[in-house]
Amino acid sequence: MVSGKRKKKALPAAPRPLLYKVLELSTVDEAAIERTLNEWTAKGWKLDGIQFAMRESSKRPSMAFVFFTREGPAVTKSEEDPSERGRSLEVAEVRLRQLAGDRAKMPPAVSAWERLAQLAGEGEAEEDDT
Known about the structure:
It is a single chain. About 35% of the residues lie in helices and about 20% in strands. The protein has a domain at about 20-75 and about 90-115: Alpha-Beta Plaits (2-Layer Sandwich). The protein starts with 17 loop residues before the first strand and ends with a helix. The protein has a 3-stranded antiparallel sheet, covered by helices on one side. The chain has about 130 residues and is α+β, with helices and mostly antiparallel strands.
């Protein structure tokens, strides 16, 4: 006897966005790569690949970029981990104001030739002639 009720199949969950993690290794040896892989896979990241940067003068890589991925919810700006992002807009604006203030204290820019003449003392001789 076949029951008139059919089991409802659960709809597959919507795919979650793929998140990426890129790490730069300036020390490229077995221990550094192994430590990085073990640390980030333990945190739920999956190795996506490793890209080595080579120097022309050496056969050993000078740097490595390690790529990881994992599925996760879309992260909004307010949820970002502050340690994993660049400087905040507010901090950047304060720094730009500081740099602009420092620039105002600098003497007006002169050409390289004028500056060389000043350093050589020729500017003083020209001023005496007038």
